[in-house]
Amino acid sequence: MFQEIFYEDYQVGDSRTTLGRTITEADIVLHAGQTGDFFPHHMDAQWCETQDFGQRIVHGTLTFSVGVGLTAVVVNPHGMSYGYDRLRFIKPVFIGDTLHTVVTISEKKDHKKRDNVGIVTEHLDVQNQHGETVLVCDHLLIVSKKAIQNG
Amino acid sequence: MFQEIFYEDYQVGDSRTTLGRTITEADIVLHAGQTGDFFPHHMDAQWCETQDFGQRIVHGTLTFSVGVGLTAVVVNPHGMSYGYDRLRFIKPVFIGDTLHTVVTISEKKDHKKRDNVGIVTEHLDVQNQHGETVLVCDHLLIVSKKAIQNG
Amino acid sequence: MFQEIFYEDYQVGDSRTTLGRTITEADIVLHAGQTGDFFPHHMDAQWCETQDFGQRIVHGTLTFSVGVGLTAVVVNPHGMSYGYDRLRFIKPVFIGDTLHTVVTISEKKDHKKRDNVGIVTEHLDVQNQHGETVLVCDHLLIVSKKAIQNG
Amino acid sequence: MFQEIFYEDYQVGDSRTTLGRTITEADIVLHAGQTGDFFPHHMDAQWCETQDFGQRIVHGTLTFSVGVGLTAVVVNPHGMSYGYDRLRFIKPVFIGDTLHTVVTISEKKDHKKRDNVGIVTEHLDVQNQHGETVLVCDHLLIVSKKAIQNG
Amino acid sequence: MFQEIFYEDYQVGDSRTTLGRTITEADIVLHAGQTGDFFPHHMDAQWCETQDFGQRIVHGTLTFSVGVGLTAVVVNPHGMSYGYDRLRFIKPVFIGDTLHTVVTISEKKDHKKRDNVGIVTEHLDVQNQHGETVLVCDHLLIVSKKAIQNG
Amino acid sequence: MFQEIFYEDYQVGDSRTTLGRTITEADIVLHAGQTGDFFPHHMDAQWCETQDFGQRIVHGTLTFSVGVGLTAVVVNPHGMSYGYDRLRFIKPVFIGDTLHTVVTISEKKDHKKRDNVGIVTEHLDVQNQHGETVLVCDHLLIVSKKAIQNG
């Protein structure tokens, strides 16, 4: 599970698909409990029936957390999560939907101030069981360069 | 808890501070369980002692989820979460840290394609008990306009 | 969320209705885990089928805890929970029921020993999605008096 | 675990002591998550340091739920929980306190309308590790009468 | 709940049946979270539909933990769990199945090195709502002998 | 994470070490909640202080579940868990201990009745942060044979 991957090893365009994960009613209950977000959109089935979406929808922060969590398979001691850009909620996620994430290396660039690292962007495309994208975001990683490492 | 707030009601520069929330060891355990991210940075106290940060650190997705969750106090039927920009992990969060979020309306702009809504940006500044910023992000909301609503 | 409310501010007859909350199977599982009450009425669907109520019923302590929790919206630094009277289980609550609480100020009276506080009674009427009362109780609050506070 | 106990079998004055249970930080986190009560008294260690009690205190509904749960050892098919009277929070409960409950049969009386059952009152005295009472309440049970049962 | 049972008190062939417990979707979610086992057999409903078993199956370690937990009713200060032999997964357990355990004293034998204790084997037969065995194991207990205790 | 491994691919003596995992107080609370085992050995810090081990100890089923869960990294579609032999609790596990598992292929043998599969034994040695073994067991896997697969 530990695997050393340097900046030079990342190839723009490389892609992998994670395992899938069904989002359950229990996940919503636990996430509301963890975040304190008890908005009726997530917690009140009766009210949701009166809304356009018709049923409880999964918290955006839960879809994001699970979508990201699914990618956490290999520990790379040379990389560090730096942040996320352009996180967008594309489609609602419902109880019983099964999510997986397609991870694509979408960009590599030098770090403005530090020679020994670069910034790698992973594009995350979280999809449901119908192959529809429900959430996208760009994950920014600061990764050590091999050359400098050895230098 | 339901409160009607239209696009016109948001004032750039307006700011509010949420309640605080102490992040516990239990929160990390539950978040690992929810996301499947069992990286040793969060789950292995023994290994963490050998690292620079010296102790378990809170998942970035947990800090984000709690930081956002703290703002979920008023349900505005005229607003909808659209996404997040420039999410950055500024400082590590440790077990026992108490977080609160400062929410500031940082921008308002028209929607490119739809006349009846605008885009409101809330800047979220999640701070620890020392007043240090640990995470920032820009929350994008699509909000109905009053005029159109009545027109 | 912090709001200063003195004894004098409470008006007998004032009423508010909370948000709703759907009670899920996960809530029963978590509450059994929290309380250690694994009685078959809550945990054994097979046995419940042989009983009058025909299906698993929600723990009384869970209905009470959620019914009370729904009211916890505003922190009043001048009030303190003192206890509950006449807590009654009126109807069984089943998995999937959506509860909300109607809170009514039902009584105000002086404290027998302390001049600077009074006792405010909130009547809690927890109802399901059919508008049926499932639990009632009287919540007793000790609240500071304004006059004394300033005196 | 199933044990048949009729109204006539209860003896006023009979008493039993439950097992003990340490209330952990995890219990507070889970109970906040279950009830939606994220008041700073329970969740914000930093704020609590500025208050009289100096540290996070356990939710009243949690102390009650655990205090009652500890008594749920024997399933009596002839008894049914009817409600609670005079529930009082006597002393604050802190993280790490170990609670047990002393259950005493305090009253028996006929049911006003139904001949075949009686009302048994169990007085619950929830105590901490110092033998101090932290919560009391009277648990009301409706219990079938043996005579009628056989008649 | 505390009950003193010595080695001599156990009778080979004695049997008891525990309460039942319905295994819920929430239990799987919590167990995955506790163990880190997010295999698609348990977590991915979409993938499971393509497999022979057709639906999510319960973790073997969960069936075992619940099957054993159901037996934990009486604390015997003279016994200590030593291990398990011949743990076998006989049939898959699905969400919604209700399990109970039949415990039979299957063997008693002296301890090879210590005179004052013996080894008692409890055979655990975990069954579903159809009376089908889903898991078996032999639980080994080291139990104090009465004679030596008094000697 | 899916990786095809046939019976012929397993080599007796091959060994791997899992990531580590710190067992927290929250894990005990959740496991008690999941199993219903609220024995004072795990839940009552006050009582534990009066016992030889002096502090709360982790449920055996939790140590087992986590020790096994740590090994669940690669999904092998050709293998199926069959059971466990010689599961032994060697040393108590305490809150805060960090566990990892050393997995060694200890035996391979033909299946008595089925030509197309064999039985592979993985010996699991669960160790704490001091390198002390706390639990051992032999995990039995039924694994498809390559030859037959192709034949």
TrEMBL record, chains A, B, C, D, E, F:
Q: What residues does the MaoC-like domain cover?
A: 14-123
Q: Name one Pfam family in it.
A: MaoC_dehydratas
Coiled coil segments of this chain: none
Q: Which PANTHER family match?
A: BETA-METHYLMALYL-COA DEHYDRATASE, MONOAMINE OXIDASE-RELATED
Name of the protein in question: Bifunctional protein PaaZ
